[in-house]
Amino acid sequence: MTRIRISTAAATGAVIALLPATAWAQQTSPDLDRYGWGPGMMGWGGGWYGMVFGPIFMILVLALVIAIAVLLVRWLGGPWHAAAPHQPSTTQSPHDILKERFARGEIDKEEFEERRRILGV
């Protein structure tokens, strides 16, 4: 019987100790909306429909950062030339090219003379 009395006394003491905490938790504050917290935080009304804007803005900001990085790299890289490196230089005159072809043996003397006459050199 002594054992029952001790556990009953302990349970009674625990209930008495927790009563002020439960009474405080059950109270409602008259100015619940005053600080902007709770179920209707910042006017959203507690709905999930506003959550769709987060990923959209994140994608837009990421695209903007990538676009700025690409433009910056292109600007710092200087002008881009599309000329292929294997193209012959155009500083030679047609007569010089004709002489080169004759020297390499691509054309014979008669063809050389005929083309030179056509070029007017």
Would you spell out the secondary-structure blueprint of this structure?
Blueprint: H1 2-26, H2 53-77, H3 94-104, H4 109-119
Helix pairs in contact: 3-4
Structure commentary:
- It contains four helices and no strands.
- It has helices at residues 2-26, 53-77, 94-104, 109-119.
- Helix 3 (94-104) runs antiparallel to helix 4 (109-119).
- It starts with a helix and ends with a helix.
- The mean pLDDT is 76.
In DSSP terms, counting alpha (H) and pi (I) runs of 4 or more, how many helices? 4
First and last CA, distance: 134 Å
Taking Cα atoms only, what radius of gyration do you get, to the nearest Å?
Answer: 45 Å
Q: Judging from the principal axes of the Cα atoms, what is the shape?
A: rod-shaped
How many DSSP E strands? 0
Oligomer: single chain
Beta content: under 5%
Can you give the helix content as a percent range?
A: 55-70%
Mean pLDDT: 76
Order of helices and strands: HHHH
**Unreliable stretches covering 5 or more consecutive residues:** none
Structural class of the secondary elements?
mainly alpha
Biggest β-sheet strands, sense, barrel: none
